[in-house]
Amino acid sequence: MVRRKWTEKDKQFLRDNHQKMSNKELAECFNSTPGAVGYQLRMLGLRRRRWTDEKDEFLRNNYMRMRNRELSRELGKTVCAVEKRLGILKLRRFKKWTPEREQFLRDNYEIMSNAFLAKNLGITELALAKKLSRLGLIRKRKRKWSKSKEEFLRANYKRLGIDELAAGCDMPPDYIRNKITELGLR
Description:
The protein is an all-alpha fold and about 190 residues long. It has helices at about 10-15, 25-30, 35-45, 55-60, 70-75, 80-90, 100-110, 115-120, 125-135, 145-155, 160-170, 175-180. It has twelve helices and no strands. The longest helix is centred in the N-terminal third of the chain and has 10 residues, at about 10-15.
């Protein structure tokens, strides 16, 4: 394709239509390439507003009842783009911290992993970590489950009692009960 000179009329057409048409569509109007159109748009300092007022309104109306994945499909955006836009628009999903939920957290933060707690409470691990911090709940010493301890538990949970499993894994009994539940062994 031959390189073309952009006239003032062409540039005005780009200014008027770059939000409505893709580079490919614009290129067809000028018998040019999408890359050439993109270059000319940059030279003119024109950027597309990727989020329209309609899309923002859709987010405002639906973010509480739809998951980010559903929103992304509906809007033709990535999940990451939706999450970022929700943040920009200050649209947040808060789960109320009831006294019961806080008590569940206080009772179990020492014996359950953040991932397991977050899943049970229906929140993200980040939200859980922030709540733990706000409540001043800090684990004394986090005990890790090694593969060998998990294998021991899987192999022996039916024939040994909780105290025997705890001794065999060198873990507190509450950790054993929680891990059995977490692994779906009962």
